[in-house]
């Protein structure tokens, strides 16, 4: 199977963590994240026209199976991987735990990632234009979501149940990039959990692979952000 991805892309990182956790062989195909217009070819990478035939939205990641089936959307790709490679499961068998996992993933995606995006965009506006109503609202939702995770993590190793799940695959890159614009060190359980994520082999590998590209992107910003993340 082939994974179309970019090392610094947080949604690609979710899938890479799942692939490494499950120890699945795959062929990585890098899509040029910097070249938004053409996604032009660098040898060994997908061109925009090639890539749009796989994913009409031009978003990464995408997965092509050995049978030529195409899966879009990071979570759906992980669900596919989990269905076919059961030895190391990332989705709980128990129905209620599986629902809790999906709920937590939605909270991470909608409120934490959404809040992070809003804060990041705000950080790139001139000072006098920052902090509008929508940004304050997004920050409030982000804070509530972080509080919720912190409460859940009071007596847990991973976000849901006893094992590492898809929710942790989603949380790792989201919480890593969140630190660029928002400091959550006051939330002790969440901070300890993030350290635990960083020392998970699959996560450390993915973070190492993505760091250089992310630093390159951050170095082009108009206004500085926290680069110690
Ligand atoms: N809902 C999609 C989101 C994918 C997404 O937004 N990927 C970003 C990279 S992290 C992307 O492709 N950005 C490039 C662009 O929008 O042109 C998923 O879960 O896979």
Fill in the keyword field for this structure.
single chain, 229 residues, alpha/beta, Glutaredoxin, Glutathione S-transferase Yfyf (Class Pi), Chain A, domain 2, 2 domains, 5-stranded mixed β-sheet, 8 helices, 5 strands, 7% strand, binds glutathione
Q: Could you characterize the architecture of this molecule?
A:
- With 229 residues, the chain is an alpha/beta fold.
- 53% of the residues lie in helices and 7% in strands.
- The protein contains 8 helices and 5 strands.
- The model has no long low-confidence stretch (mean pLDDT 94).
- It binds glutathione.
Outline of the structure:
The protein is of the alpha/beta class and 229 residues long.
The beta-strand count equals 5
Shape-level CATH architecture of the largest domain: Up-down Bundle
Shape: globular
List the strand order in the largest sheet: 3-2-1-4-5
Provide the domain count: 2
Largest sheet features: 5 strands, mixed
**Relative helix content:** 40-55%
CATH class of the largest domain: Mainly Alpha
Total count of helical runs of at least 4 residues:
8
What proportion strand?
Answer: 5-15%
Bound molecules: glutathione
| Cα-to-Cα separation, first versus last residue | 32 Å
Q: What would you report as the Rg, rounded to the nearest angstrom?
A: 18 Å
Structural class: alpha/beta
Uncertain runs are none
CATH topology call of the largest domain: Glutathione S-transferase Yfyf (Class Pi), Chain A, domain 2
Written as H for each helix and E for each strand, in order along the chain, the element string is EHEEHEEHHHHHH
Mean pLDDT: 94
């Amino acid at each position: 199977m082939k994974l179309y991805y970019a090392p610094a892309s947080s949604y690609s990182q979710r899938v890479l963590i799942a692939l490494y956790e499950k120890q699945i062989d795959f062929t990585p195909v890098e899509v040029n994240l910097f070249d938004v217009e053409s996604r032009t070819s660098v040898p060994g990478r997908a061109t925009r026209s090639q890539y749009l035939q796989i994913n009409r939205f031009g978003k990464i990641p995408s997965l092509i199976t050995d049978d030529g089936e195409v899966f879009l959307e990071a979570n759906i790709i992980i669900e596919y991987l989990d269905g076919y490679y059961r030895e190391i499961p990332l989705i709980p068998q128990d129905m209620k735990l599986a629902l809790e996992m999906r709920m937590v993933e939605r909270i991470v995606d909608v409120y934490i990632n959404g809040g992070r995006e809003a804060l990041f965009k705000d950080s790139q506006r001139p000072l006098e234009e920052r902090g509008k109503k929508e940004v304050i609202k997004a920050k409030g939702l982000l804070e509530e979501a972080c509080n919720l995770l912190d409460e859940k993590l009071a007596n847990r190793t991973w976000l849901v149940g006893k094992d590492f799940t898809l929710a942790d695959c989603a949380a790792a890159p989201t919480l890593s990039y969140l630190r660029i614009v928002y400091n959550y060190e006051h939330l002790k359980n969440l901070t300890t959990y993030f350290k635990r994520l960083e020392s998970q082999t699959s996560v450390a590998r993915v973070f190492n692979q993505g760091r250089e590209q992310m630093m390159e992107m951050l170095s082009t910003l108009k206004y500085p952000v926290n680069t110690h993340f």
